Amino acid sequence: MISLAQTALQKYGRIDNGWSFMQNNDTPATSTQQSLQENQLPLVVGVDLGGTQIRTAVLRGATLLSRVNFLTGANTQPDSVLPRVYTAIQEALDKANVTIEQVAGIGAAAPGPLDSATGIVFSPPNFPGWDGIPLRDMLAQRFQTPIFVDNDANVAGLGEYMFGAGQGSRYMIYMTISTGIGGGVIIGGKLLRGTNGIAGELGHMTIDWQGERCACGNIGCLEYNASGTSIARRANEAIQAGEGTELLTFARTMLQHSSTVADQRALPTQGVDPSTVELHMADIEEEDTRAGSTQQGEEALRVNAHTVALAAEAGIPLARAIIQHAAEALGAGFVNIIHCFNPDIIIVGGGVTQMGPMLMEPALRIVQERAMKRPREAVRIMQAQLGANVGLIGAGALVYYEQL
Length: 404
Ligand SMILES: [Zn+2]
What we know:
single chain; alpha/beta; Nucleotidyltransferase, domain 5; five-stranded mixed beta sheet; 15 helices; 41% helix; binds zinc ion
């Protein structure tokens, strides 16, 4: 059924020259033919529930008819968040001048782990208080329409599969690299969910089996070695060990020009999900350290992944080495994916990938050197296309995927 939807919705040009660092375009491309095709799809509601924002939209295919953004707020308890979700859904309907009876269903993306079969959310690390919350049934009590729930990375992967870079693919791997690393795996046109709905946790594949312990309990995970959090952690560890003088000087210079840094011109950010924006901001935790003595400043100044990326671009060896480490870990992850799944496409999204060639070229070189020839020649590794709305488009795609 998915292939039918894909055929009907073939709408984006494909980029066939390997990794492309072209900017994503938030607005789906339009043409007469494609508008007609998309018009054949029913309206759906998409819900993107995150630690930072609650986002809702009424969609037809990849086209947003309305969009509502709420801050999730400091209190992430279900009693506090759920009423805001209900309100955000109703506001999206009202803004689009649509009633719940006119939509084919509500698709919701929520932080994992969650079981899509039951719609129950199990203690996501960034969602305190959500332990065994029956999100699907609670939404169903409120809205009389079919409700589908899945984890945010699976949902984003479905979005790219149906409406983005994965169109026409059958064996597609989606990976998002931001503060963490998530994944969505499409096998033979089907989302791979696994026994407990946990399949596709690509960030927690082992890269360094004798390495350090990840928050998940495993040793040497990809996420521990290549996420934005990992890049920042390695930089700050080096600084604390006294190896980061040049990087610190660079970070201080950036602070002195913090207005230019704040408007984020230094790295392209268009198409970056707001949930990853913290990678690009807040270079320090305590601003008054900037005028302090060198010793005190070195203790208090914390750099983030964005600063490390800029420092690497400026040629600072420590920063280059840290990005190189992340890139090579990512390359090893790609090799594992290619050998395990023999995909036709690997789609990479998330804020960290905005570093572009600095991250992707070493990763692709590892693939070239290490992956088996036949599956390597069959795969394209490409940038995600849907940009900041991937969560909402994917949530809507979940309704189509489950119903078409
Ligand atoms: Zn892990």
